[in-house]
Amino acid sequence: MGGKSRQIGTAETQPLAGLLNTPAQSIFSSLTAVALGLSAGDLRVSLKPISKSANSIDDIVLTAVVPNPTDHDIRVIGKNNVLDNSTTSSFAVSKDDNTVLFTTGIRTTLDLSAEGVYVTIPAGSSIAVNHTRLGPLFDFNTHGTGKFKFAPKTVFQTGYDADPLQVEVDAVEVNVAHDVAKREVFPLERRASTPTCGNSARLTVLKNALSDARVRAGGAASDINTHPNSAEFKTYFGGNKQADIWYNFDRIAGDLASSGTRKIYCNKDHASLCGGSGGVIAGGKIVGSDHWLTRLPKRLIYTCDYLFNNVGSTAGVCSGGFDSTASSKGGVILHELSHATAGTADIAYGCSATAKLSAATGFE
């Protein structure tokens, strides 16, 4: 099924320089990290299942084709969207209008200066991506057999703060007749809300970064309470309930029981995402349901060598007039804690780009 594209809104926002020192904006910059933007029609997306019926969730295979109809090559971020067939979330899945949770996989923090983050689609050509490992990533078991709807994530950017392009494409359905039993992508482990590392120097770095992340989250929560109608809140969370946004930050700041428990590792990489030019700084591993009431998945946090060797220790998440995921170790941990506690998703990268998201998408 083909799709049309649209450039996500260009509503006026506060000048970035005026927002850099406010807690809520500084925090939000770390939760969503986005050069020249794309124009409507630059990219298209089609999505088809190999088969509309499957005996097992292991048999679900979706093929996405992203054509570039222009006369120039287009280089876009190829992570956390339909171009990404790793164990991240490239689809929103539902059944009978009920959301099927993404319960097993990886949420990553990216260095957008790394070449491996990007995909180039040649002029007048297209790229096809097969998604073959969807079965273990989502909570199909809770919803039972039947028709599942897959809506691809189709927000594309060319780099930091580039205007995001949303390509509209119809969701597809696959009927699973029998096997929807829960799978595990990674080995199960105990969780504890503590940094875990055999290297004492790196352990200290993780402890300091965790402390910094909680302070930032607390500052944001306080700022939201004391300035509920601030320009920053309206810019990044407008249309959402103040209490909901405050609660997400407060869970990080207080490490409340409702946020679950986890370890933050310095020496494990089950998904083989670290190293090379892939641009991964850290990742959160999702390994099943933590609380039957909230159905919040268990999330463990893993850090790559890049965090210790390349990411700054500055107290500022935003510096020099731009937001960078490589500017603050505390910002990286905060980013991962937002995935772990509130289940946030990476949709757009950069302050200006995230300000243009819809209220519903901004809450994610």
UniProtKB/TrEMBL annotation:
Q: Please give the Pfam families that the UniProt record associates with this protein.
A: Aspzincin_M35 (PF14521)
Coiled coil feature spans: none
**Gene3D superfamilies membership:** 2.60.40.2970, Collagenase (Catalytic Domain)
Question: What keywords appear on the UniProt entry?
Answer: Hydrolase, Metal-binding, Metalloprotease, Protease, Zinc
For the keyword Phosphoprotein, the answer is: no
Q: Which family does it belong to?
A: Belongs to the peptidase M35 family.
In its UniProt record, a GO molecular function of this protein is: metal ion binding
Query: Which SUPFAM superfamilies would you find in this protein's record?
Result: Metalloproteases ('zincins'), catalytic domain
Lysine-specific metallo-endopeptidase domain segment(s): 227-358
This chain belongs to the protein called Neutral protease 2
Query: What is an annotated GO biological process for this record, any one?
Result: proteolysis
Q: Does the entry feature the keyword Aminoacyl-tRNA synthetase, yes or no?
A: no
The cofactor required is: Zn(2+)
Query: Which InterPro entries does UniProt cross-reference here?
Result: Fungal_M35_metalloproteases, Lys_MEP, MetalloPept_cat_dom_sf
> PANTHER family of this UniProt entry?
NEUTRAL PROTEASE 2-RELATED (PTHR37016:SF3), PTHR37016
Q: Name its species.
A: Favolaschia claudopus
